């Protein structure tokens, strides 16, 4: 099983997640050994499998496992743990060498495929972008796993996962702008009456979506009490932060990871979003969930390790903001883009469409040129075939001419006979 420190530094804090479960006080939990181990969740990194396999084998080494448990988080980030690689067993190092060779081979195959694909499409190959695929290992030494490889792996995973949420926000913003762009473009295709009806329907859907119960501030006492009462089936008057933490620390590691936190907001999100309603967008729901989790992390995660410990949770529960939070504003109340950003986005789409049209036109021209050249080749092939047939005919004629010139006489001439008298006997 992944250790807490490993999840913390290498970004695998997401590896043990589960939804909160309703608690029945009359039912005892089964013994720990009878519980199924939690499933590992994908970190979203393109080298996720390699990362997991490396840590898996490092944890099998007693020396490294001890250092992992006892090394401070900042020291790990600064590469001090990576130096302990020199002290792991030979068997582990040999396996790590093999894993690295497999990873290098995978990346080379992937990059070759991308280059071939870009070449077929006539696109310029971005070599710098391709080289970034290797940043989590030292590709100059493709054969052995060294201290530098572990250091790069830790730093790459930490950095990539810290930027993961930012990239998700950017993708969501593009999604929302594209949705609005397509809506406006659709309106342009309608006549005045149909456009008016469409606008009225759009405004009606917005009002229906905004008509929902009050949203509790994520991480506040009111919000957690609602989970305590409705999901856990407990008396809200008996709410206890420590017990609540224990109930929702679903993997029992003593921390709330990101998935465990996000699961706490399901009740609030169900107030706003329903997959059966036309006006509700489930992608917006997931963005709202992400915003809630980020907010709580910023407020409660004091050491910024992307985990909430029991101590941090209890400290937050004693703050004034926990008891008297500000009103939570949803995505609808905080648009993710401005009109200026939408304008720039549409201009970008226009440029992309123009470039695509130019490329399409160029490909069409190249196709026509190839077809013309093919027609010329076909014509030349026909002419060549005709020439070959003509040559064969001439050759056949030359062969027949000498045979006709050498035809034998009907009567064989005797010596001394004249050709003029051979058919006329002498007069007596």
UniProtKB/TrEMBL annotation:
Its main location: cytoplasm. One of its GO terms (molecular function) is calcium ion binding. Residues 1-18 form the signal peptide. It is a peripheral membrane protein. Residues 236-271 form the EF-hand domain. Pfam families: EF-hand_7, NUCB1_N. GO terms for cellular component: endoplasmic reticulum-Golgi intermediate compartment; extracellular exosome; Golgi apparatus; membrane. InterPro entries: EF-hand-dom_pair, EF_Hand_1_Ca_BS, EF_hand_dom, NUCB1_N, Nucleobindin. Residues 395-428 are annotated as: Disordered. The keyword Membrane applies. Residues 419-428 have a biased composition (Polar residues). PROSITE patterns: EF_HAND_1 (PS00018), EF_HAND_2 (PS50222). The keyword Ion transport does not apply. Keywords: Calcium, Cytoplasm, DNA-binding, Golgi apparatus, Guanine-nucleotide releasing factor, Membrane, Metal-binding, Phosphoprotein, Repeat, Secreted, Signal. It is found in: Cytoplasm; Golgi apparatus; Membrane; Secreted. Belongs to the nucleobindin family. This is EF-hand domain-containing protein. The lineage of its organism: Eukaryota, Metazoa, Chordata, Craniata, Vertebrata.
């Amino acid at each position: 099983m992944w250790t807490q420190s490993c999840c913390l530094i290498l970004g695998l804090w997401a590896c043990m997640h589960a939804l909160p479960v309703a608690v029945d006080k009359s039912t005892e939990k089964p013994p720990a050994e009878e519980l199924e181990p939690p499933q590992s969740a994908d970190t979203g990194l393109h080298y996720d499998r390699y990362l997991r396999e490396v840590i898996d084998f490092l944890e099998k080494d007693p020396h490294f496992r001890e250092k992992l448990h006892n090394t401070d988080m900042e020291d790990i980030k600064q590469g001090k743990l990576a130096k302990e690689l020199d002290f792991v067993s030979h068997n582990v190092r040999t396996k790590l060498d093999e894993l690295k060779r497999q990873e290098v081979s995978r990346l080379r195959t992937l990059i070759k495929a991308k280059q071939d694909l870009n070449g077929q499409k006539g696109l310029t190959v971005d070599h710098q972008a391709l080289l970034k695929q290797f940043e989590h290992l030292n590709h100059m030494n493709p054969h052995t796993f060294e201290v530098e490889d572990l250091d790069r792996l830790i730093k790459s995973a930490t950095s990539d996962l810290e930027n993961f949420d930012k990239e998700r926000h950017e993708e969501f913003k593009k999604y929302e702008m594209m949705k609005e762009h397509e809506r406006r473009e659709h309106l342009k295709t309608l006549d005045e009456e149909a456009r008016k009806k469409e606008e009225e329907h759009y405004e009606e859907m917005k009002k229906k979506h905004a008509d929902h119960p009050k949203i509790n501030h994520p991480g506040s006492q009111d919000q957690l009490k609602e989970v305590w009462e409705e999901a856990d089936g407990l008396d809200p008057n008996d709410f206890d932060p420590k017990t609540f933490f224990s109930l929702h620390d679903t993997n029992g590691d003593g921390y709330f990871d990101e998935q465990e936190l996000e699961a706490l907001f399901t009740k609030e999100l169900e107030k706003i979003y329903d997959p059966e309603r036309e006006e509700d967008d489930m992608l917006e729901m997931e963005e709202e969930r992400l915003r809630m989790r980020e907010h709580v992390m910023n407020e409660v995660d004091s050491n910024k390790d992307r985990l909430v410990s029991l101590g941090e949770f209890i400290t937050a529960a004693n703050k004034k903001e926990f008891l008297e939070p500000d009103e939570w504003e949803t995505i609808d109340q905080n648009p993710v883009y401005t009109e200026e950003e939408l304008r720039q986005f549409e201009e970008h789409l226009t440029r992309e469409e123009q470039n695509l049209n130019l490329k399409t036109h160029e490909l069409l021209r190249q196709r026509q040129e190839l077809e013309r050249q093919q027609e010329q080749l076909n014509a030349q092939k026909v002419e060549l075939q005709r020439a070959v047939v003509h040559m064969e005919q001439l050759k056949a004629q030359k062969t027949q001419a000498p045979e006709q010139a050498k035809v034998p006489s009907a009567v064989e001439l005797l010596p001394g006979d004249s050709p003029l008298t051979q058919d006329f006997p002498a007069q007596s």
